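Reviewers of the previous submission asked for a worked example of the structure-prediction workflow described in the proposal, so we include one complete record here. The input consisted solely of the amino acid sequence. No template or homolog information was supplied to the procedure at any stage.
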Amino acid sequence: MRCRGDVIDRLVCAQDSDPWAIPRAPSDGEAVVLVHQRRTGMADDALFDELTRLALAAGAQVLARLHARRHRPEPGSFLGKGKAAELAGLVEGHCATLVIVDQRLSPIQERNIERVIRCRVIDRTRLILDIFALRARSREGQLQVELAQLRYLSTRLVRGWSHLERQRGGIGLRGPGETQLETDRRLLGSRISRLKKQLERVRAHRSLVRRGREKLPLVSMVGYTNAGKSSLFNALAAANVLVADQLFATLDPTIRKMELAGIGTVLLSDTVGFIQGLPTTLVEAFRGTLEEVRLSNLLLHVVDMSDPQHLEHSHQVGETLEEIGAGAIPRIVVLNKIDQVDMRATVRRFGTGEVRSVAVSAASGEGMTGLRGVIAERLSGVRVLKRLRLPPTSYRLRAQVYSLTRVESERIDEDGHCVLDIEIGAAAEGRLAAQKEFNVAYWID
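From that input alone, the workflow returned the following C-alpha cells.
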C-alpha cells in the first residue's frame, strides 16, 4: 500500500505495513480472531455473541474466538501471559490478519498485544466506528463519523508514531522544529476544527428545516440495534427504508408523515440503534442527529422479544436516553417480533389506565392497529392548565411554549419575569422539560 502525506493515511499505512503480519487467508472478508475477557463469576457469553455479529456486520470472517477469565485486565497487556500465548497460537494456526477485543484497550495495551501475537489488534470502539463509516450515507452522517474517528485516532498517535518521536534532522533541517508526533497532532486538531465548523453549518440548516414542522407532533423510534425499528417504521408510515438483519443497518435518521385518527398528521422518525458500550466519541459526534430524539413529543421504545437479553438491552436504552437528555420524554414500550415467540398482540396497562406496553409484530402486521390507537391516545392526552415563570431573557423558550401549548394569559411580575398560564398535554410537557435551558423550578404550583 502506497502511503500518502495525509496523517490518517500514514497511520493506517504504519499498521498495514507491520513486518509481523501473517499472510491473509483466502476469503471474501478479513480473517479475524475475537477475544472477550470477562470478570470472574460473570456470564458474558451474550456479549461475545454480540461481538461476533458486530464483526460480521463489518465484513469480517470470524475464524476463532478466545474466552479469557480474569478479575481485572492486566494494565500493560490486557491479557495474561498464558492467554496471550494462546491467542498467538490461534492467530498463527488460522492465518488471521486481525484480532478484535471486546473491551476498550489503551494504546499501550494494543501495542503490547501486537508485539506478542504479531498481528494487528483493534478494540470494540474501533470496530463500531468502522461499521458506522460503512453505513453513513448522508453528508451529516459522514462528517459525524469522521469526527468520531479522528477523536479516537488522536489518542492513538503515540502507538502509531513511536518511532518518530524525535526532532527532524539533516542538512538544512537542523535547529528548532517540531517532532513528527507534534505535527500529526496539529494536523488532526486542524481537521477536527474544520469538521466541527462544517457540522455546525449542517445542524443550522437542520434547525431551519425543523422550524417548519414544529406544529406537527414528532414521534421517534428508539431501541437497541436490530430490534426491528425500521420494519416497524415501514409498517406505520408505509415507508420503504432499508430493513436488514444486521447491527446498525440504519444510521442516518429518516422522517415520514403518518396519519392518525383523531390526531391528523404526525411525524415519525427512525433513528440509529443503541448498543452496549456505545463509544463516547460517537455519542458526542451524533448529538446533532440524536437531537431529533430529544425534541420528540413521544418515544416508541422498540424491544426485540425474541432476544434472550431484551431486559438488559432495554436497560441500556434507558441509560442512553438519559445521557442524551431524553429521559423525561413520554414513551411507549413496543414489544416487537411476537411472531417469533409465544405471545399475542395485546395492550397492557397499569392500574391507573396508563399504557404499559404494546405487543406487535412488524413483520406480520399483528397488533399494528392497537399500536396506532395507543399512539393517538398518548398524543391527544389530557391537557391541563399550568403556570410557568420564565426569566426575561428566555426568548427561545418562550417561543417554544407558544408553539407547543395554548397560552391563556401572559403578564410580567414585579421581578421582570414572564408568567404564563398555559394549557398543555403530557407530550408537550415532556418536550419542554427536555430543553437544555428549561429548569423544573420554572413551574409554579
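Residues 180-211 form the longest helix (32 residues). We consider this example representative of the routine output the project will generate in years two and three.
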